[in-house]
Specification:
The complex is a heterodimer of chains A (179) and B (81). Chain A has 179 residues and is mainly alpha-helical. Chain A contains nine helices and no strands. The radius of gyration of chain A is 18 Å and the shape is globular. The radius of gyration of chain B is 25 Å and the shape is rod-shaped. Classes of the chains: A mainly alpha (179), B mainly alpha (81).
């Protein structure tokens, strides 16, 4: 029988932690490793968690710190791999003005890590700017600015996608944009 | 047309935080800046829908196992399975 509210609360947060980690790392295996480490760490320090405060925010703080410290180098590689983005665009215009899962994931990976995490916490997780600022260890204004930059960049990337969807050759368009 | 949108948001409209390159590039290559309210809404919805897909992924068994293990350790060894 499980009657441990902390365990249940942790369990309930795992989908969010996995979604966040995957969106930053784009690799389920690495994402799940990070989430696992987060859970272990949270469990070890459960006495530090004050009941009634935001467990999700606390867990996100642990998770993003683990991701940053363990994968600082690899995070750079992810951004360096952006050059292949245009090449990976589908060539058939089968989804008119439809921004599908894959498009969004691809575009997200083109955004610098600090902006991406800000956008995910605010725009996807629905946290407040204050919560995100605490998790990221920066000022609220910095979060706002990062979210804005992420949205602009995303709109630019997705805008290209959409135009290319409508036009005859999205790959050429994307190549022009990329060059 | 494109010009109207550009004017409505002003030359700095697409660069709210001084990043600049976006507005300049988008204007140069594709006409108006893309970050109007409509695309913002579309981006937001698309992001949420992508994230919802991720949230609804089935939970790998390893996480329940992990919590069982942690809980077992906490309650003391000897509980088994």
């Amino acid at each position: 029988m499980t009657a441990d509210p902390f365990r249940d609360a942790l369990l309930a947060q795992i989908p969010s932690l996995r979604a966040f980690a995957y969106s930053l790392l784009k690799d389920w295996s690495r994402a799940d490793d990070m989430v696992q480490d987060t859970i272990v760490k949270a469990w070890q320090h459960r006495d530090r968690f004050e009941e009634g405060t935001n467990l999700g925010a606390w867990l996100f703080t642990i998770l993003r710190n683990l991701i940053y410290s363990a994968h600082r180098k690899r995070a750079r590689e992810v951004e360096d791999a952006d050059g292949s983005y245009a090449a990976r665009l589908r060539t058939h215009p089968d989804q008119l003005a439809h921004l599908d899962f894959q498009d969004m994931q691809e575009a997200l990976q083109k955004i610098p890590l600090d902006q991406r995490e800000a956008l995910l916490l605010i725009g996807a997780e629905g946290l407040s700017y204050e919560e995100a600022a605490e998790i990221m260890g920066v000022a609220v204004g910095t979060v706002k600015s990062r979210v804005n930059r992420a949205r602009n960049r995303l709109a630019q990337l997705m805008g290209v996608e959409r135009q290319a969807d409508l036009g005859p050759d999205r790959v050429i368009l994307a190549a022009v944009q990329g060059g | 047309m494109a010009g109207d949108e550009w004017q409505r948001f002003g030359p700095g409209g697409a660069r709210e935080d001084g990043s600049g390159e976006f507005g300049h590039r988008a204007f140069q290559l594709t006409g108006p800046p893309h970050v109007d309210l409509a695309s913002r809404g579309l981006i937001g919805l698309s992001l949420k829908s992508m994230y919802d897909d991720l949230l609804n992924q089935p939970l790998p068994e390893r996480f329940r196992d992990l919590l069982d293990r942690l809980e077992g350790d906490r309650q003391g060894p000897g509980d088994g399975v």
